[in-house]
Every structure is written in C-alpha cells, then in structure tokens.
C-alpha cells in the first residue's frame, strides 16, 4: 500500500479550477471569464510586439550566457522596476533608501516580503481587504503572519465602503501591516479616489501601520503607468517606509515567465542595505536565485526609450479594449432591458467586474450558457470580445429574470 494512501483529495484552486472545468466542456459556445489573463478580440492570448522584439535582441546577443543570477536577481531589472513604480525622479531611489529584489512574479514577491516580515518585523498581524484575491490569505498565513480583514466593498452600492475601511484600520493595533491593492482592486474593480488615498495615508501614518502594496496591474487600470502608481507614490513622498510587490504578468503579458519584484522603501540607505542582506537569507533556501529570461526581457524594454514607448502604446491598447468591453456589456444589458442597475460595470476599474451575481446565478450561467467565472460573480473583462458580449448579456439577463 502507498505511504500516501490516506491522503484526501484536495479541492481545485477556486480560480484556476474554473479553467479546468472550462477545458472539460465540449460546447462550442463556451466562454472562460475566470482567469485574469488578457485575450485579443479573437479570444487568443497576446504576446506583445515589444516582448517579441526584446526576445529577438536577446537571442541575437551571442555574449549572453545561462549563468546563475545573484540571489537578488538581475541588477538592471531591479533598478528599472523600482523606477517604474516609484517614479524615475523618486527621492527615495536617489537617496539609496530602496532595496529591490527580483522575485517570482507578484505571488513570489508577496511571499518573500511576508516571510521577511514574519522573521524581522515586530508586528505579525496583516490586514487584508474583504474581499481580496483568494491567494492573499494563504500566502500570508503560510509565511507565518496572522491575517485579519478590513472592510472594503459595499455590496449595496457596489462601490467602496470607505467609512468601514477607515473604522477598521483605525482600530487596528499600532504597527500592524496593511495590504493595499495599488490599483484595479481584485476582485471588485473598486479603487479609492486619490483624495480617499490621502486620508488612508494620513490615518495609516498616524498609527504607524506598515503599508504593503500589491501592484499587479500597473498600467492596466487607466492605461497610464504613472497614474496607476499614484497611490504608491503618495506613500513614498511622505518619507515613510513601505513594501511593494510588482508583477509583470499582466502589464507586459509575461504570465508564465514569472517576473516580478519586491521593493522595500526604508528610512535610510544604511537600513536598506541591512534589509537587503536579510532578504537574501529568505530567498537562498527558498529557490536560490530567480530565473533569467523574463527579467532580461523586462530590462531590455525598460532601458530602451523606443521599446519603452512602444510598450506604453501596447499597454494602453489592452486597457482600452477592456474599457470598451465594459461599455459593450453595459449597452447590451440596457438593450435587453435587464432589470437592475448595471452602471458598476462601467464604473469599476481594471481587469475584473464584480457583477453582483450570486453563486446560484453563476452556476446557472455555467450550466445553461457554458460561461465560466469564479463563484463570487467576478468576470474577467479581458476574456470578453464583441463576439461573446451578446451571449454573456443573454446569460445574465436569463439569470436575473
Ligand atoms: N495580486 C493580485 C491582486 C493579483 O490579481 C495577482 C494575479 N492574479 C497577483 C497578485 C499575482 O499574480 P502573478 O503571481 O501571476 O504575478
């Protein structure tokens, strides 16, 4: 008998499991709105033109070898990544107060940051928004932090519960870590306004709460890299400390390359150097050092002004297509006279719409219309196209009437 015979079968991941179910469905009209990955109008995955160009440059460079990277990753990549999120003129970077390490996409950056905090920070509690990306509580719990939630979303308005957020952060213990979605909150698509961010900042700094930004969608929310980084930069500008996890999965379409970065902004260059030395001790026994290819693609694009410019254009085109899907879906529901207020579809930001559809309605749409989405009613707008919008609108209409 197997030594593992008494294992119980684990459930599928709630998000990635949607794709597993989708792949099993033989229907020709099936639509996958589960996973947050960009698709073209034709429903195909997209490799950006600039990524193809950068890869070509890398392949043609015969001096490139496959040696190990340092524990902290590709130095150029790290420098350019911190400039991308904090701004090229950031005083924190100029003063050498930022340490940046290349990690395995957004998830790996969150995990390394969390392991570091669990080992070295005086407060073990992290507040995450309710709801949030389903992997957050698992990443932080397994790293050894204790997870609590703060109110974020108001189902009645399908918008921000700003009062609840302020109350919950206001009663958090001094020094607690707070996870903030830098932009395009997943799964709700609801972000604070810049004025609300400023109030959050003041409250958090007054209580010495430590910000941990998760930036998985820079450029995807508004189409502008700078606009989407505004909340993070607001917190850097006051001179205080923070962590930021960056992912290039969405904004450069590098999903499977697993490219990301963890930055820790410190009070002084001296502290930043010590922090980096300790980050290396977290990383070395976990995976030794990060992979070279994806980070080289990113560095090639970020350091070449022409490639960078082309990237911003391609990024804007992806963001614009998503925004146009919001309008098409909203118009299609209005044309059908579907009962309810659907303005949140055009108000929400980023890759996802939090439809407000309940578990039963989602199950109905999957069963009768072969439309796949997470059971909380979140749909990936990036998975929609002009061809599939009418089908989705029919399904929503049938589900709510
Ligand atoms: N944070 C959030 C909020 C996300 O939505 C995602 C991707 N779904 C991630 C982090 C991490 O993604 P990745 O590890 O692929 O960069």
UniProtKB/TrEMBL annotation:
Cellular component per GO, a single term = mitochondrion
- Domain of life the protein comes from: Eukaryota
Pfam families to which the protein is assigned, alphabetical: Aminotran_1_2
List GO molecular-function terms, semicolon-separated: L-aspartate:2-oxoglutarate aminotransferase activity; pyridoxal phosphate binding
Q: Does the keyword Flavoprotein apply?
A: no
Q: Quote the subunit structure annotation.
A: Homodimer.
Can you name this protein?
Aspartate aminotransferase
